Amino acid sequence: MHHRRGIWLTLLGIAAFAALVALVPPLREGVASVLSGDAGRLRSELRDLGAGGALVLAGLMLVHAVIPFPSELLNAAAGFVYGFWLALPLVLAGWLLSALATYAIGRGAGRPLLLRFVGEERLEEGSRLIERGGRTGLLAARLIPVVPYSLVGYVSGAAEVPLWRFAWTTVVGSIPLCAAVVYLGGRLDSLSATDPGVLVAVGSFLALLIGGRVLAGRVRRRHRASAAA
Fold it and tell me: What's the pTM value of the predicted model, to 2 decimals?
């Protein structure tokens, strides 16, 4: 009974937030921009909103807790509109809120609903990484995008990972990739192949993506080997 109530409360919360997005024009337009991949329109919308753009940015990150889209769109747009030093803490705070929302969804919905929501293969992959790795696994999942961002939160909530551990590993592990993309976003008007900062940011971004691919492959191979044994 308690589990069923948790599922209904989770679904009602998601529905209420969806209604809010539909009723607030800047949020609705922002969602349309990110889902269509229109980075230029997203940057214009945030810039035109001034300080209110930061609230829309946070709202879009909360949308990401339910609807997946490339997080780099928001990070780069924030860097372009607000500059590196303001944008970086903004996106880290926003992604922490989004991660806490995914944790709450996982805690409330539990494994049966998540199986329908994200599929068995992704759920098992996330569970293996978190259960075997502990703090290191959580940091790796954020530092190197091995498992989709929202899935880490769903699994952590369902597995009842301590909230403080989930929160600090999310912030610390997100810093390198967020910093690289925010920096590149802030340099969109003046990108130069000779800019050392751009070279470091691009190199870090590529290294994290490649590392994630390699690590994800190893996790899958180990799972297949253990299953075969």
Answer: 0.80
